[in-house]
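Page 37, continued from 36.
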């Protein structure tokens, strides 16, 4: 199987982006929860919608600015925005994205 790449990303509304991958799979991902709960200032600033809309595709991944935020296509393809490690939990990570549409 060839590597997963994003070939198109379209801003829809609020914090939702429609992604098209190189195998023609499309997903709409809502970044709102991630941005609202992020402990990182370089991510929280993208709650300003005019900044949020300034994403681009680089090397098949979705990025903002000079890698302020970067999401690998292989993770987005699976609906994963961020993997969190829990020190006090037996679960090593969890998905923290909201997939709106899966086509």
């Amino acid at each position: 199987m060839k590597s997963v790449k994003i070939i198109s990303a379209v801003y829809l509304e609020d914090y939702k982006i429609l992604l098209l991958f190189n195998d023609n799979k499309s997903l709409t991902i809502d970044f709102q929860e991630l941005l609202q709960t992020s402990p990182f200032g370089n991510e929280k600033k993208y709650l300003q919608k005019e900044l949020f809309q300034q994403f681009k595709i680089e090397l098949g991944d979705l990025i903002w600015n000079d890698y302020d935020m970067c999401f690998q296509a292989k993770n987005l393809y699976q609906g994963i925005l961020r993997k969190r490690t829990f020190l006090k939990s037996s679960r090593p990570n969890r998905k923290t994205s909201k997939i709106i549409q899966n086509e």
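The radius of gyration is 14 Å. Flag for discussion at group meeting. The longest strand covers residues 6-13.
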